């Protein structure tokens, strides 16, 4: 492996995957400052700037090391490589990458290009009852972009495959149309590029930004809920949207909720989005989860008994990302620790995951999770404000507190700004009734409860 790929090539590919997963802010803080120093048979040594070492190393130890191993496995075709972070001690280890040259064609320092991930294809997307409709529409869009289902918005919870399905459209169309101009960006990328173009001192920066996003055949935008409350970027995307659709170009977006549920999203944008087609992706059922695990084991040339895969699938039911994470931990056990591919080994992984993910359900945790989802603050939930979006978030938080803890009605009321028990009872009843008639509300409550319990 080390003879066929250099440390720079490996690190560049791993960086690209981290950028797609993390976005601009986290990438710039924890990935970009690192420099590859040495690639051995089992590790990639990375130099960490001394003035940022403590924060970066702590973040890698808690969050990024397993992702690195997984990315390296995918890039090298199965070679186990771990990250070896070492604090820079010499000038030769602190290599500073040259600043990008600003050319006439690109007269603004846009953020790193977010290329399509070649692994995100229709062939690798496992369909089931929770995503088959979204998949069918995606195939139709890939065959005739700009002609049917335009715009196309895919919504659903974290880790269910929205990005995979959206990028499959781009990869599929690029196969048959290699000259096609396809742009993938997160909503945060779009915001940062727009902001950079306004701040740039170079003439023509704004025009270059518009050309970048308005001269494509397919525009793919991830996580549009990020634009909540950001009026200027919404205005710019509205104009970009109109320019593309006017010329018959395809727009595909993802979101963690339907547009009308995104706080402070302009009405004219939601109406534009709903003029196309909206499809949701739900959590995979058990047969789909087993099929996903079979695909993963087949791709990695592993022979794992069905009973083992079924055990993992039965216990990891939150989302595809968590399922894949559990599988790769199991794979690491049998590949590199010489453990047998048995139910006992799988149970060890599941036990470890329960230890890592288990969270004590408290009122504070419920309030923090709900506030984050609805883009509010815990203080807002406790306040006397009667704004519609805030009232709904507060009612959901009260409902979850009532159903997930042993707190009494008066205690719950006190935890939400000193309200009386009748307010809590009213909120609980209202959400209960809504969940009975609205499948989206029921699904939301299940997702939030899972996040509260599992810390995801």
In the predicted model, the low-confidence regions spanning at least 5 consecutive residues are: 90-114
Spatial extent as radius of gyration: 24 Å
What's the count of strands? 8
CATH H-level superfamily of the largest domain: P-loop containing nucleotide triphosphate hydrolases
- Gross morphology is globular
- Helices and strands, in order, run as HHEEHEHEHEHHEHEHEHHHHHHHHHH
Q: Which range best describes the helical content: under 10%, 10-25%, 25-40%, 40-55%, 55-70% or over 70%?
A: 40-55%
Class by SSE composition: alpha/beta
| Biggest sheet details | 5 strands, parallel
Tally of helical segments = 19
GO biological process, one term: DNA replication initiation
Region (Domain I, interacts with DnaA modulators): 1-94
Protein name: Chromosomal replication initiator protein DnaA
Pfam families: Bac_DnaA, Bac_DnaA_C, DnaA_N
Concise structural overview:
This protein is α/β, with parallel strands linked by helices.
What would your notes on this structure say?
This protein starts with 6 loop residues before the first helix and ends with a helix. The chain has helices at residues 7-22, 24-30, 53-76, 132-143, 162-176, 187-199, 205-214, 231-246, 267-274, 286-299, 306-315, 320-336, 343-357, 363-373, 378-382, 388-404, 409-415, 421-437, 439-454; strands at 35-39, 43-48, 82-87, 152-156, 182-186, 218-222, 250-255, 277-281. It contains 19 helices and eight strands. Helix 6 (187-199) runs antiparallel to helix 7, helix 12 (320-336) packs across helix 13 (343-357) and helix 16 packs across helix 18 (421-437). A five-stranded parallel beta sheet has the order 5-6-7-4-8, sandwiched between helices. It has a three-stranded mixed beta sheet with strand order 1-2-3. Strand 6 (218-222), helix 8 (231-246) and strand 7 (250-255) form a beta-alpha-beta unit. The longest helix has 24 residues, at 53-76. The radius of gyration is 24 Å and the shape is globular. It has 456 residues and is α/β, with parallel strands linked by helices. It folds into four domains: 7-93, DnaA, N-terminal domain (GMP Synthetase, Chain A, domain 3); 132-281, Rossmann fold (3-Layer(aba) Sandwich); 286-357, Helicase, Ruva Protein, domain 3 (Orthogonal Bundle); 363-454, Orthogonal Bundle (Chromosomal Replication Initiator Protein Dnaa, Chain: A). The protein is 55% helix and 9% strand. Residues 90-114 have low confidence and may be disordered. Residues 1-94 are annotated as: Domain I, interacts with DnaA modulators. Residues 335-456 are annotated as: Domain IV, binds dsDNA. This is Chromosomal replication initiator protein DnaA. Belongs to the DnaA family. Oligomerizes as a right-handed, spiral filament on DNA at oriC.
């Amino acid at each position: 492996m080390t003879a066929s790929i250099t440390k720079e090539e490996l690190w560049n590919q791993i960086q690209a995957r981290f950028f797609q997963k993390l976005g601009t802010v986290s990438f710039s803080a924890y990935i970009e400052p690192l420099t590859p120093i040495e690639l051995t048979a089992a590790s990639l040594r990375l130099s960490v700037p001394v003035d940022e070492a403590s924060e970066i190393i702590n973040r890698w130890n808690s969050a990024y090391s397993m992702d690195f191993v997984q990315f390296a496995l995918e890039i090298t075709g199965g070679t186990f490589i771990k990250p070896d972070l070492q604090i820079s001690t010499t000038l030769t280890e602190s290599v500073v990458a040259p600043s990008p040259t600003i050319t006439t064609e690109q007269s603004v320092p846009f953020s790193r290009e977010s290329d399509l991930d070649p692994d995100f294809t229709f062939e690798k997307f496992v369909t089931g009852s929770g995503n088959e409709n979204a998949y069918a529409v995606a195939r139709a869009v890939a065959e005739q972009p700009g002609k049917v289902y335009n715009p196309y918005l895919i919504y659903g919870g974290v880790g269910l495959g929205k990005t995979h399905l959206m990028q499959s459209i781009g990869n599929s169309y690029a196969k048959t149309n290699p000259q096609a101009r396809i742009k993938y960006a997160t909503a945060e990328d779009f915001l940062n590029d727009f902001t950079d173009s306004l701040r740039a001192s170079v003439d023509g920066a704004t025009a270059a930004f518009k050309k970048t996003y308005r001269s494509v055949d397919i525009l793919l935008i991830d996580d549009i809920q990020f634009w909540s409350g950001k009026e200027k970027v919404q205005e710019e995307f509205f104009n970009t949207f109109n320019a593309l659709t006017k010329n018959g170009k395809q727009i595909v977006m993802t979101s963690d909720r339907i547009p009308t549920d995104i706080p402070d999203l302009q009405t004219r944008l939601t109406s534009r989005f709903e003029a196309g087609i909206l499809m949701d992706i739900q959590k995979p059922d058990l047969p789909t989860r087993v099929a996903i695990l079979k695909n993963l084991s087949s791709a990695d040339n592993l022979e794992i008994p069905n009973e083992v895969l079924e055990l993992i699938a039965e216990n990891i039911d939150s989302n595809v990302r968590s399922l894949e994470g559990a599988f790769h931990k199991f794979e690491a056990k049998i590949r590199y620790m010489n453990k047998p591919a048995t139910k006992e080994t799988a149970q060890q992984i599941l036990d470890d995951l329960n230890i890592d993910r288990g969270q004590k359900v408290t009122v504070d945790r419920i309030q923090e999770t709900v506030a984050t989802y609805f883009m509010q603050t815990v203080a807002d939930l406790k306040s006397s404000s009667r704004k519609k979006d805030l009232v709904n978030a507060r009612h959901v938080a009260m409902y979850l507190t009532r159903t997930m803890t042993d707190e009494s009605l008066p205690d719950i009321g006190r935890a939400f700004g000193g309200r009386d028990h009748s307010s809590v009872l009213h909120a609980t009843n209202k959400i209960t009734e809504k969940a009975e008639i609205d499948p989206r509300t029921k699904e939301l409550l299940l997702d939030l409860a899972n996040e509260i319990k599992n810390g995801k």
